[in-house]
Amino acid sequence: MYAQMVKTDADRVRSLDEMSAHERAFQERVDRGEKIEPKEWMPEAYRKTLIRQIGQHAHSEIVGQLPEGNWITRAPTLERKAILLAKVQDEAGHGLYLYCAAETLGVSRDELLALLHSGKMKYSSIFNYPTLNWADIGAVGWLVDGAAIMNQVQLQKTSYGPYSRAMIRICKEESFHQRQGYDIMMKMAAGSPEQKRMAQDALNRFWYPSLMMFGPSDADSVHSAQSMAWKIKINTNDELRQKFVDQTVPQAKYLGLTIPDENLKWNEEKGGYDFSEPDWDEFFEVINGNGPCNKERLGARVKAWEDGRWFRDGLNAHAEKAAARRAAAKIAAE
Ligand code: FAQ
Known about the structure:
This protein is mainly α. 65% of the residues lie in helices and 2% in strands. It has 13 helices and 2 strands.
């Protein structure tokens, strides 16, 4: 089984009649579009589903720094370096907002990180692919941030207040990230034939992994039905994937690049493009830990955690001493 951790109570979404009085009142609040706040009653499975999704989202932001961070020292100009540095720093900030949102559900950041480091919790499949050259940094900004925003815009309306508010802020920053990636692609696609070839090669390698970011097809998505009933998710995986393709194809045309899909075709009837599905076997391999960079990414995170232990210990010792000094001063003043 490729999904883990949270089993919702039922194998299908229950009707209002089948719910307890508490659950029904909760569902009616969600249906009215009210936000659920941390201290309010919520079904245990709702809480666990949020911890799973927000935690994985936070991990994605943190692990997602690695493929781009790799290029900070090799950015082609000082301006590009400064922009990339700021972007990677933003991703760290996004991770922190999201860990804070998860903490309001009664799980600590240390617990979430332990689950990531032991491989029990996932992070986005996309970050298990390598960034081989500078064009890949353009493709990550354009496609990966583009896909991330497509997913996150709807999450601004998610039913859990702290997650929704974190998303509003994150989306503002992500849209700059997407534009800086597109700007790199514009420069490269309009550059020398070799630069244009690199841009096309980056698009070829990142296209299908970007489509996978939206998750398995709706038929295979185990959590969607319940998550949508609780308005944790607002759109299905396939709906968002379709929107992403429809938005991105004209952008590729403007760049003079070709989407690597022979079946890509405008479908007048549905008002969107028909396109090839990603290789789902590859997707399941990647999310089960067997992608090109899984071991390297997780290894880097575990090492960073171990290397930072002395610093965390120092901060905690300082906080304890400061608290003891404050307490002693209070007693002396009484
Ligand atoms: N990768 O039933 P569903 C970013 C798992 S942020 C890995 O459809 P659900 C910013 C899923 O967890 C990118 N695992 O699940 C940035 C579940 O396994 P579980 C991250 C995946 O939750 C840019 C199982 O498959 N964004 O990139 C993936 O209803 C550039 C069943 O799937 C978010 O996390 C995947 N792609 O829908 C940073 C957004 N897809 O947990 C740096 C919030 C599915 O039972 C640089 N998350 N799985 O073990 C979501 O919207 C949802 O969780 C989905 C999946 C849509 C990702």
